[in-house]
Design brief:
It is a single chain. This protein has 14 helices and twelve strands. It has helices spanning 4-19, 34-41, 67-77, 117-131, 144-152, 158-166, 171-181, 189-195, 213-227, 234-244, 250-263, 268-283, 330-336, 351-360, and strands spanning 24-25, 31-33, 51-54, 58-62, 82-91, 103-112, 138-143, 247-249, 292-294, 308-313, 324-328, 344-349. Strand 3 and strand 4 form a beta hairpin. The longest helix has 16 residues, at 4-19.
Length: 361
């Protein structure tokens, strides 16, 4: 990879492009309160973040990305509408692949604007595409909102819907739950034994942890009720699979999704949003006829994307991570907004990947 001084210089060039559009430069601390990230992502975040402890401030994390602190800054005292840009280092643990960097630079652009979300999506995508136009990259797009709308429309309990939504970003876990809820696979034997009506709470057993005996009993009762719920129909599972298997260029994907929406009306609004986004991208000069769309794209990223998602990739360079990624995260503003929310979308570019690719072409 290029030297840090060269990476910083390229990052400054990219950030200047975004500043020229009127974006405000945002500065965030390298150390972030761990509590916020743990509340958002649960204990799983510990597997990919560096955690330390401060006697006064409590647990802290080295900044794993910029989006969360920028959103928090905006929700605390930002004006509307707002556009931000930033550059700096982020830190990610790499326990499975020692060849991937655990410290690298991001340059980002974030838009907070409730006037026209489709236009904001197109703005962010086209700006990133323009910044990378000199490179032979493949653009991929998707929409997490389609899957989330489909799950919310299932004929099943609210608890099951919540569990599926919680694991949208964990495809294997999502599939395991869907197979269980549809009756395609049985309840695990260990859970079945625990949930049997004749299995009472054992007295005299010490409780370790934060849950009280009453809370444990309530949890077991909730699981018993869930096991007795009617299975999700095979037809609805087939429609979900058809949705997840959509992989076309944007115009053909839109037509396929319209067909699915006839039998799955819950996704109709999300399909309209996709149509509006395609029109907005076209107005920005993006060649939508050649742009790839994959309904399952973006499901392994950080868990704040809930709508449009995209990435730029260098095919033929398997050693390189994505050059840029981005997406919409409206729900994150609601979580961090203390009662307020605003549509938001953003993206990051990795300047060192840009430079490595340039050196290999």
């Amino acid at each position: 990879m290029p030297q840090k001084a060269l990476i910083r210089a390229r990052a400054a060039e990219l950030r200047a492009r975004f500043e020229a559009t009127g974006a405000t430069v945002a500065e965030t601390s390298v150390l972030q309160p761990a509590e916020v990230l743990l509340d958002l992502y649960g204990e799983d975040i510990r597997a990919r973040a560096y955690v330390t402890s401060d006697s006064l401030l409590g647990e802290q994390m080295l900044r794993p990305d910029f989006t969360v602190p920028v959103v928090q800054m905006h929700m605390d005292h930002g004006a509307e509408p707002a556009r931000y840009t930033y550059s700096g280092e982020v830190f990610r643990r790499q326990e499975d692949d020692t060849g991937r960097a655990n410290e690298y630079t991001q340059v980002g652009y974030e838009v907070f604007d409730r006037e026209n979300p489709a236009a904001a999506d197109a703005e962010v995508f086209s700006l990133v595409q323009g910044a990378l136009a000199h490179l032979p990259l493949r653009a991929a797009t998707g929409d997490i909102g389609l899957l989330m709308a489909a799950v919310r429309g299932l004929d099943t309990s609210d608890r099951r819907k919540a569990a599926l939504l919680r694991h949208v970003w964990r495809p294997r876990r999502f599939r395991a739950l869907l197979d269980r809820y549809s009756g395609r696979v049985p309840v695990p034997a260990s859970r079945a034994a625990l949930l049997a009506e004749e299995a009472p709470m054992q007295s005299g057993v010490p409780f370790i942890g934060l849950r009280t005996p009453a809370e444990v009993s309530d949890r077991i009762e909730a699981l018993r009720v869930d096991v007795k719920s009617d299975p999700i129909s095979a037809g609805q599972v087939d429609l979900l699979d058809a949705l997840l298997n959509v992989r076309e260029t944007l115009p053909f994907a839109l037509e396929r999704l319209r067909d699915i929406a006839v039998d799955m009306p819950a996704i109709t609004e999300a399909v309209f949003k996709l149509r509006d986004r395609i029109e907005a991208l076209d107005k920005c000069g993006v060649s939508v006829d050649a742009l790839e769309f994959e309904a399952s794209y973006g499901r392994t990223n950080l868990e704040y994307y809930d709508g449009f998602v995209f990435g730029f990739y260098a095919d033929g360079f398997a050693n390189l991570p994505p050059v840029a990624t981005g997406g919409r995260y409206d729900a994150l503003t609601r979580v961090l907004g203390n009662g307020s929310e605003i549509p938001a979308v953003g993206a990051v570019i990795r300047p060192e990947v840009v430079m490595s690719l340039e050196a290999q072409l």
